[in-house]
Design goal:
Blueprint: E1 8-12, H1 17-28, E2 32-36, H2 42-49, E3 53-55, E4 74-78, H3 87-95, E5 99-101, H4 102-110, E6 114-119, H5 124-137, E7 143-150, E8 155-158, E9 164-169, E10 183-186, H6 194-197, H7 200-211, E11 219-223, E12 232-235, E13 242-250, E14 253-259, E15 264-270, H8 275-290, H9 295-303, E16 313-317, E17 321-325, H10 330-343, E18 349-353, H11 358-372, E19 377-380, H12 397-400, E20 407-410, H13 413-423, E21 427-431, H14 440-448
Parallel strand pairs: 1-2, 1-4, 2-3, 4-5, 6-9, 6-10, 7-9, 10-11, 11-12, 12-13, 17-21, 18-19, 18-21, 19-20
Antiparallel strand pairs: 7-8, 13-14, 14-15, 16-17
Keywords: ATP-binding, Cell cycle, Cell division, Cell shape, Cell wall biogenesis/degradation, Cytoplasm, Ligase, Nucleotide-binding, Peptidoglycan synthesis
Domain Mur ligase central: 118-288
Domain Mur ligase C-terminal: 310-433
Length: 450
């Protein structure tokens, strides 16, 4: 399918962060765009405000007449999170419509463009958003498809006028193998999505296949220590080719110097907390240098970076401090909790965590428990199932029973709100990739009045 031939686009699962970016992209191109999602969220509300039709009822009757014709210019995009029983999905299948996964569509869009693709089991959203921000802030420009809402631009898609596209490359169900980047950044290769891959070795194999798809004369930038050959290594410390040195905290902000084999950039201010974000910045700087962005512009752009919503996002800064984060893997949680500890070593840390997926909870229960034990107080919610059916014997309890925090409570979201209102924690962190974000506004209201 050629991009210029697409006139109508229907997205099944339009409310997802990656799907909504495609909806906005095609709407901007002048296509007729509509879609279905099972849940109304602030993101779907934003799409409707932008004149993109969204339905929350999985019924053929909800599909507009324009999409019920045999239109060769119509593209149907679906997310793997949609169950195979979906009435809308099966309607389009029965019609023989052109159905593509989100990742396949990104492959179509990026074909013929200079593509910077950022992959990794964690760190990819912040790193890809930072690269896109540096290119935009420096007036170089780019089109970008991001896995989160950029706080600088309040969107998950950017529109450039040049031939450069920045893409977050998702490893779930090997989606990133539809891409053939000019520059590939790999931030991490920890075991994850074992329901798809089966083993950590298969995860690593998939990342090596992704790295093998880099175009001729293209470049690989990879975090130091990853099992990938031929890349430019980067790190927040150690002996990587591109690295941060002299890392310190000044006035509550991380500051570091960047060094590679060719140059040094001194006194870079990274507004986001945590050594892991310094590392993300080093990878982004190396990518921007490959695009010939000047060191001065890179330094200015990073200092102006506001981050990504739900990535160590400050919700309340007052008598109580409240931070919200998307972390849903043990290593993401470790980075998040460690950053909170670094910034506020004298405050009691209370964490509300919602496990995401039965399979991930089963596979990493011990790791989750170890990391969550960093918290002084833990409030643990039920598992958010997303696309999965329950697995016998798997619940939040298999994490809870292993946690060694001095106070721990397993409860519902409603009970958690009551608990927070009674305890008024001085430092609160909510974390998870499910619907825990629906707690943000109620918690903000409680703690803003503390």
């Amino acid at each position: 399918m050629e991009l210029n031939n697409i006139k109508r686009v229907y997205l099944i699962g339009i409310g997802g962060i990656g799907m909504s970016a495609l909806a906005r992209y095609f709407h901007k191109r002048g296509c007729s765009v509509e879609g279905y999602d099972r849940t109304q969220t602030p993101l779907t509300d934003s799409l409707r405000e932008e004149s993109i039709e969204v339905t929350y009822v999985d019924s053929v009757d909800e599909i507009s007449p324009a999409f019920r014709t045999d239109d060769p210019s119509a593209l149907i995009i679906y997310t793997p999170a949609i169950p195979g029983s979906s009435a809308i999905l099966n309607y389009f299948r029965s019609k023989g419509a052109i159905l593509k996964k989100r990742s396949e569509v990104l492959g179509i869009i990026s074909r013929g463009m200079y593509t910077v693709a950022v992959a990794g089991t964690h760190g990819k959203t912040t790193t890809s958003t930072l690269i896109a921000h540096v290119l935009t802030h420096s007036n170089f420009g780019c089109t970008a498809f991001l896995g989160g809402i950029s706080s600088n631009y309040d969107t998950n898609v950017l529109f450039g006028t040049n031939n450069v596209v920045v893409v977050e490359a998702d490893e779930y169900d090997r989606s990133f193998l539809t891409l053939h980047p000019d520059v590939a950044v790999v931030t991490s290769m920890d075991a994850d999505h074992l329901d798809i891959y089966g083993s950590a070795d298969k995860v690593n194999e998939s990342f090596r296949m992704f790295a093998g798809q880099i175009k001729e004369n293209g470049k690989l930038i990879c975090k130091n220590g990853l099992a990938l050959d031929g890349g430019i290594s980067y790190s927040a410390s150690g002996d990587a080719v591109a690295r941060a040195v002299n890392v310190r905290i000044e006035n509550g902000c991380f500051v570091f110097d960047f060094i590679n084999d060719e140059l040094e950039i001194k006194d870079i201010q990274m507004p986001l907390p945590g050594l892991h974000n310094v590392e993300n910045a080093v990878g982004a700087i190396q990518a921007a240098l490959l695009l010939s962005i000047s060191p001065q512009k890179i330094k200015a752009a990073i200092a102006a970076f506001k981050g990504v919503k739900r990535r160590f996002e400050y919700i309340v800064r007052g008598t109580s401090i409240y931070i919200d984060d998307y972390a849903h893997h043990p290593e993401e949680l470790r980075a998040c909790l460690s950053a909170a500890r670094q910034l506020y070593p004298d405050k009691k840390l209370t964490v509300i965590f919602q496990p995401h997926l039965y399979s991930r909870t089963r596979d990493f229960a011990e790791g989750f428990a170890e990391v969550l034990s960093i918290a002084d107080e833990l409030i643990l919610l039920d598992i958010y199932p997303a696309r999965e059916l329950p697995i016998p014997g798997v619940s939040s309890a298999i994490i809870f029973d292993r946690v060694s925090s001095s106070f721990k409570k397993q409860c519902s979201k409603e009970e958690a709100l009551v608990l927070v209102e009674s305890k008024r924690p001085e430092l609160l962190l909510t974390a998870g990739a499910g619907d825990i974000d629906t707690m943000v506004e109620p918690l903000k209201k409680i703690l803003s009045n503390a």
